[in-house]
Design brief:
alpha+beta, Alpha-Beta Plaits, six-stranded mixed sheet, single chain, 26% helix, Rossmann fold, globular, 5 domains, Elongation Factor Tu (Ef-tu), domain 3
Amino acid sequence: MDIKTVNLKNFTPERVRNFSIIAHIDHGKSTLSDRLLEFTGTLSNRVRHEQFLDKLQVEKERGITVKAQTASMFYEFEGVTYLLNLIDTPGHVDFSYEVSRSLYACQGALLLVDCTQGVEAQTMANFYLAFEQDLTIVPVLNKVDMMNAQTERVTKQMESLFDFKESEIIHASGKSGIGITDVLKAVIERIPSPKGSNEAPLKALLFDSWFDDYRGVMCLIAIKDGSIKKGDKITLAQMENEYEVLEVGLMYPEETQMDALYAGQVGYLITGMKSVREARVGDTIYHSKHPVKPLPGFKPAKPVVFAGIYPMDASEFEMLRDAIEKLTLNDASVTIEKTSSPALGLGFRCGFLGLLHMDVFKQRLEQEYNVSAIATAPSVLYKVKLKHTGEMVDVETPSDFPDPGKIEEIYEPIITSTIIVPKQYLGNIITLCEEKRGTQLDMKFMDEDRIILKYKLPLTEVATDFYDKLKSLSSGYASFDYEEAGYEVEDLVKLDILLNGKAVDALACIVHNDNAYYIGRELVSKLRQVIPRQLFEVAIQAAIGAKIIARESVSALRKDVTAKCYGGDISRKRKLLEKQKEGKKKMKQVGNVELPQEAFLTILKR
């Protein structure tokens, strides 16, 4: 279809379908999206490449979807041409906020399950996410052409877990194109059209945005009612700022300018916004002369992992601030606030939805905005009850911890996790959960081969290396998902790391009292390997309060001051050595230990 000749006014809500693809990580969402775009003629062979909608460099390098992407397609079915708006969503648990936000712009979802792997933890989480929003869910069994496909077994899993009928499940393969027509037919026949009227006043939901260096802030919008065209005067409900519409259009699959957008349609909007704070995700857009009741918007994401991000060089602070502001426009789930550290200078305290989220955010800062940054060890939000006043204080960083004498109780965040694991790895995973202070809540067989485990775990244990160890111990077969479960009292202590007697705030961490000695020994041992030798001895100590629990030393670089003494009395050599010793003592008093980034990574990978 020639997009230039299309009049979107003809595509009334009855001829529009807005749907999303949801699945566990690596179940083939992006590949299926590619086939749908090719089959409908949206992607020509000239621009074809694998995972077309994975546009970020970090997505191509890691092979995962990080950012939900929208694309519009036209498809003729039984003599009627339909406008289909597809949103390809991430699969990893850390990006579930991206999924939930995208579902607001949809009326249905394709639930994709890899028939070589079966139902995974995030498959279940995404199913319930779509179910709670009352979306129509179309089950699709992907990769049916693989040699190790277990179609019958996975079909039974989907029937027992989600109450699907076998006749409802579509068999498809994103790689070879099997079942693509069945998928498109199901989208048109099963997914309801959006409700809305072109005659009503404009009401549109801003559900995503990003920053373009040449055109300013780009907004993705879902039109609930009315229409929007170039030249319209619009207002954003939260900020109450008025703008003139400079351009509207469809993502076909890149930005394609159109005359107007109408009720039920999803597209992009440019108004010349210069500041990233003006486009708040979840905001309602309306015509300035016709105010409407704002849409409920999105429930704000609750960050669970906190880390400091600091520039490598103090002079790059402004550059880092600009980059973080632009990136948080594109990733609304990150919370930021300005902070400073004696060791690292000015920086930002950022809240993330998980460790991978934090890692990807830092990588995007470096790749997309060319900013080098140091990320400190991740921490979680603790609640501390004070002795005399009984007041509850929120504590994000170890440096904010009150004096131990003032603390009555420390509460740490707890999560309820769902782990799906093949039975041969069950022992390994139970041992891991027990090591991480987990409490088993439930264990049941999904089928003859796989088990669903439910564990209550402290978030601080999961926020470090839990996911990596889970994958390692299960040869990559276990899947993991979690939800918050409140706070519980625990015996926690602040573990300080001292360099030559001075505490380094950025290296402090909160640990359980039972594990403090072992963690202290491990940290000082690792730091000894990464801190470069100085001209004086460096003492690395782990301490709880005033009590030193572990120590290592980095020996001094030594110049051979006796090299010029050929023979003669021993007292000459001794005199030179004593002079050197005094010099080193003085240097130790005034010298600073330069901490390389590896020192922070050591804590990060504890």
